[in-house]
Write a structure and sequence with these properties.
The chain is built from 5 helices and 17 strands. It is of the alpha+beta class. The strands form 4 sheets. Strands 1, 2, 3, 4, 9 and 17 form a 6-stranded antiparallel beta sheet that branches. The longest helix is centred in the middle third of the chain and has 13 residues. Bound molecules: zinc ion (ZN).
Amino acid sequence: MFYFDTIAGKKVVRSDLLSKDEAEHFFTTRELCLYSKTEDMTPNQKIVENYLGKVLATNKPVHGIHIEKIVSHKNFYEETDGLLIEKVGAAFMNFGDCVPLIFYCDKVAMISHAGWRGTAQSMAKVSVKKLVDAYGFKPKDIKAVIGPAICKNCYNVGEEVYEELYKTVANPREFFEKRDEKFFVDLKGINKQQLIECGIEQIDVCPYCTACGEKLFFSYRYENQTGYRHSAVVML
Ligand SMILES: [Zn+2]
């Protein structure tokens, strides 16, 4: 279940699936924005780094499925959509409607980025495969947290995108809807289904939409391609 917390008085959301002993993690809201195309967000990053007691690594996402393991002498990772932390380290990744995925198992954590392109390439399954292949984890022992992203009611896509995503799950039913000749998809639901299909049993899904309801997060689609992002943050 997701719950609210604050860091330096600024709202964040966390999942109770991961204990702080396992991995410190949270999703920032608009109050603690770590990325803007035009503004310098260094003060907010410093707030988070002071709270964690560690310098944060981050990435430039390209809607791919490449995953990098973070290393202590490098804080920026070009063209990668997955950041893997082994034993020690801290990282954040930025989102504006796309699905943030946080994984944890036995002192290894990962943040993955799954927009529609990443989801069509089954980034959730690719991420699990990486953890299983590199560390020998059993899928049932891996915890997966799906962060805030655009909901099915808000995510109207073209027919081609709908068809691409439909192919990625064995049991698509409730994640896809045709309404008034428009196509809607539940990106969080599709990612959850991809995780279930590769044997993940422990999954927590954030109930909040980035576009509707309380404006807790940023929506690229509904805020005129905003240059601001909210972030998934993980530390081991
Ligand atoms: Zn919505």
